[in-house]
Structures are given as structure tokens and as C-alpha cells.
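INPUT
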Amino acid sequence: MQENALPVFEGPVCPVPLHHGEEIVIGHGSGGRMTHELIQQVFAPAFTSPEVASSNDSAAVGLPQSAGLRGKLSISTDSHIVSPLFFPGGDIGRLAVCGTVNDVSMSGATPLYLTAGFILEEGFPVSTLQRVVDSMQTAAQEAGIKVIAGDTKVVEKGKADGLFINTAGIGWIPEGREIGGQLACPGDIVLVSGPMGAHGIAVLAARGELGFETEIQSDVAPLNHLIQELLLAAPHTHVLRDPTRGGLATTLNEIAGQSQVGIWIDEKSIPVLPAVRAASEMLGFDPLYIANEGKLIVVVPQEEASAAMLAMRNNPYGGQTVQIGRIEPSPVGRVLLHTLVGGTRILDMLSGEMLPRIC
Amino acid sequence: MQENALPVFEGPVCPVPLHHGEEIVIGHGSGGRMTHELIQQVFAPAFTSPEVASSNDSAAVGLPQSAGLRGKLSISTDSHIVSPLFFPGGDIGRLAVCGTVNDVSMSGATPLYLTAGFILEEGFPVSTLQRVVDSMQTAAQEAGIKVIAGDTKVVEKGKADGLFINTAGIGWIPEGREIGGQLACPGDIVLVSGPMGAHGIAVLAARGELGFETEIQSDVAPLNHLIQELLLAAPHTHVLRDPTRGGLATTLNEIAGQSQVGIWIDEKSIPVLPAVRAASEMLGFDPLYIANEGKLIVVVPQEEASAAMLAMRNNPYGGQTVQIGRIEPSPVGRVLLHTLVGGTRILDMLSGEMLPRIC
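OUTPUT
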């Protein structure tokens, strides 16, 4: 499984094994440690292939030699189950398109085609479906991707929650382009494209679960143009990832595990909007574990870091790009945080479920 | 939308328009006329592209010229919501793999890669998920396709029905291969690979809805090897389709509409297992509208029809291939049935929902 495959863990981290007779719990879909355990123990042993083992957001695959393909295909899939369907800054349709466009793009691919599978609950208003479909098409046009194949299924009332959308995306990776979570090198610089946590808090607010008013908007956006501009300026970029489910902390842990490096992050440099920080503190959440849907993590060689940052800041979705840390040889597979108060602590992966059904 | 896109209707068929304020009903997912109306009125206007307009089981698309691709990609998606998850002859996992392998293959493509998105209901047994995943891998191995990317989401108890699986498939269509629902020509022969309706009846039996015992097994199977052998023997094959939701009658109507031809079918030549016929009669169903998951409709020029039939009969999934009819210039967009009693009647598209949630 690409979307949330199992990075290598080292050190004292001991995943709790799944037991026979165990049931699926919400945490298995969090994108954090429980999801990784489910993948390691159920999916990975069945679907063994080098592409699955690579643990990136998308699979990079070739075609038979007689097809003449130069480069590779980038393929990814995602199911979208957000509640509510509409939230400040976006909706399930925009989320479904952007999520898969972004996953395909994280390999450096140009996303080209999208499939869309709709699971509808009996009684769902056709006019609401129309709004969602129109929003998908608007997002697809912004990204420059075509929706080329689809499927519609209807289940009896009470057997689904209004609307679920699955998208799969296909893109093309030009020959010679090598980008992946396993390629971070000591000395590389870590950038993020803007403030963390807005999507998760916006969805919670839309549910009325905050208990107070907020104007936070989801950041849901297609990042493919931002990435193309970045790669022109910094062609030796090593890693691209979008910190969705599990947030920045989980994604950095995945990179540290895949690349077998230590990632040292400076807490005070991590951008978080004041309203997101305030909401997180009231709810007892850490913004570093909250999902984003339009943010980019970049790991780039130091000599290209300035060019990368400049290029990203010139794109509307990267205007607030900052450096948040650096890759070190150790501790292997770990993320270390220089805290605001001057200490250093291990920043671990999300272990259960913090924010259900937000992506 | 490819899977169930809108063929052209002519003559007295008047689709009922969707009204503002209308709600989704089970019939919108049947694969019959209501599904086509939903696609025509909601999806098609948004997702306009030549690939979507082609109304085939899969989209045939190219890559940027610099990718060097010879031929095309075949891309398809399908969501699987069958209840119960296990039934005689198969399960949701085998169905999910075979359904998409078959859709990709209907363009004459070699299916290569599969994505899998799992939506799990809280409380679903991990051991059952393991059985389904193992069944998927067995089917993928039989088809020779790799599962390369996946996604797992969990919804609260009561917000889904155990397990839904979405699959998307990618295949390669060699240069020069032209197969599609719009290519049937007057004079062509129509073949089917075996008896109709077993899958739908097997699922109903597994639900205990028949009220009597039956040994009918689902026909769910990957058809890609059968198709490759057929195309070696009959390289000028015009149309390949698998009669899934909506059954043989709906699929033939789609072909008649896309190709703007008449399809004349001989009822007595349509193979139906005695047990399927008996169950259908007791339930008031017509086997020609019941879903199949391992059957192939072939439209082939008369001069290659014998070679096609011979090749198909040599494959385990085509052992009972027969000729059921012929393409005529008229009536355009219609399927005519020479009935058992010697008359002729229009065989229409499925208009509502007959068998919910069987594929």
C-alpha cells in the first residue's frame, strides 16, 4: 500500500501486534501507527511487490518494453469520507481531486488522468451530488487533470454516510527524475510550504465540535504546479511529501524511517496560524499531528535550498515557505524536535486516531 | 464516466429527466437506464472529454509525446459493495480484482496494475479482512496483475456496511488495436462465452432470498487471458464487453446505441443454466438482465467468427461459447429478440433496479 505504507522503525518503538479476533477501530484509518500496523500485517504480506514496498504516496511503475515508454507512470489512490461534506475552504469533491493529484505529484510526476468512484447512500440529494461533481471539475481544471473514468454505486439507506468518493490518479514521471521518501541525505534542508493544521481544524469547526467560532479555512489545493516550478529551480530535490492524515510529525517519521536518517526540526520555525494554535490548545491537539491538504514538505540538497524556497514562494500555494529543519545521519529513523523552551524531544508518529474522517 | 456511460438512444425511448430536489434511489446504481440518466445529467456535463464520451468499460488515453508511448493506456475504476461479502464461487475481493481486470481488458489491453481503496466499518473483523485480501491476491495472481497502491479508511459503526472496495486498473493497448462499443458493423457476429445470470442468482442465494436451495456458483473470473487468446485468433474483433450490472440485455443496448446499429438476437441460442432459469422464473426475473462477472460478449466480423469461437472454447472461461445473434443496419440503437415462441420483440435496457448490490 502506497498511501500509508510501513516505514522502517528502529530503536525502542514496539508496534502492538494485531491479535486474531481483533476488530477494526477508527485508529486503523488515522494514517498513524495503527494504520501502518494494519498495512504491515494484513496488506503487505498479500500484495508483495517492490512498488508496494517503497512506502511512497504513489507507485512508480513501468510498461512492457514494446510500449516504448520513457520514464515511468506514477499511480495512486485514495478514498474520501469526510464529514461534513462541505467545510470552510472546500468540500469532499475538491478534497478527492486534490488529494490524488498531490499524491501522484509527490514522485515528481505530471498528473494527467483521474478516475472517480462514487458510493451514494439511498436518499442522497441529487442537487448535492451536482455541487460536489461541479467542485471536482473546478479542481480538476485548476490542476490540469482530466477525469476520464468513473463508477456509481448506490447502497440502501443507513448503509453508508451520504457520499464516499474514491479517486485514482495516473501521471508521468520523466526519465531520470528520482524523488522519493528513501532519498533524504544528511545535510539536506527540510522546507514546508506554509502553516500546519488548517484543514483538520476547519473540518472540526464545520462539525460544530470546536464550541467556538473560527474563521479558519481548509488549505485543500492541488500542488502540482507548485511542484513543477520547484523542480525547475531545484532539480535535485530528494523528497516531496504532503503531510495529510497524521500531520507533519507522522510524515517526517515516515521519511526518517525510509531514508534511515535523523530529522532535526526546530519547533519555533514551524508555521502555525494563531487561530489554529488557539483551537488546538483548547482541544488538546498538537497541530503537528493535524491533517493538511494543500501543504508540501520538501527535502532538498543545501546548495539548491535557496532556489527552492524562492521558487515556492512565487507560487500562491507556497507563499509562506520556510525552512524547518535539516537531515542528520542520526538518530536513524527518528525525528527530533528542538522545542520552544530550549530542550530536545523525540517527535513520534501519531499512534491512534486524533481527528476522524477529515480527509 | 466509462463504466456505465450513456449510449445514444433513438426512437420512442424517453428517459425520465432528473428533477431538482430529487433523491438518489437504489435504481441509480443498477447499471440500467436510471444509472445512464444520472450520468447524462450530473457527471457527463461536468467531466466532458472525448474519453468520457466514448461510453466504453475503460478509457483509452495517451501520454505526452515526450513519453514515447506506443499505443495507449486503458484505465478503469469500479466500487464493490456486494452483500454478503462471501457467496458461492467468490467473494468481494475476487469480484473487485476481476471486475476491474475485465473492464481494462475490454479495450484489448493487457491489464498490468491495480489500485485498491478499502472503506472499513468500525468493528469489522480483521480476520475477515485478511480473507478478502488473500482472495484479492489469488485473483490478481491468476490474472497476472500487480496490486501496486492502496488506501484504507475507517468510518464509525453504522456509517458503512462492513467493507467497500474500490479498484482502479491500468493496462496497455498495443499500437493499432482498435476495439470499442462503437465499432460493431452490420454483418458482424455476436458471441457470448457461456451461460447468463449465474453471478446474480448465486449472490441472492447466499442472502437466503431465494427461499430454496440451489448449487449455482458465481462465474466471477478474470477474462484477460481468454481475450488475449481470442485476439490472436480473431485480430479484427470489433467489440468486447462483459455483461455485468444490467445483464446481457443492457450491454447489448449500449453497443447498439454506440455503434448506431440494430442487434438481432435469437432467444433460443442464449445459454442459461437450468438452475438459473428455474430460480429466475420463481423470482420473476429475466436472466438477460441479471449480472454476470465472468462472461464475455464478442462482436466479430463474420470471416473471423469461427476462429474466434474455437479459440474461446479452448479457454476454461470460454468453454461454452456460442453465437447468439448478428449486427444489422437497423433498427438503429435497438436490440431485437427472436423469441422462443417465434415472435420478435424489442429487448430494452434495464430501467430500474432488479438485483441490488451484487457487484
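end of record. The longest strand of chain A covers residues 110-121.
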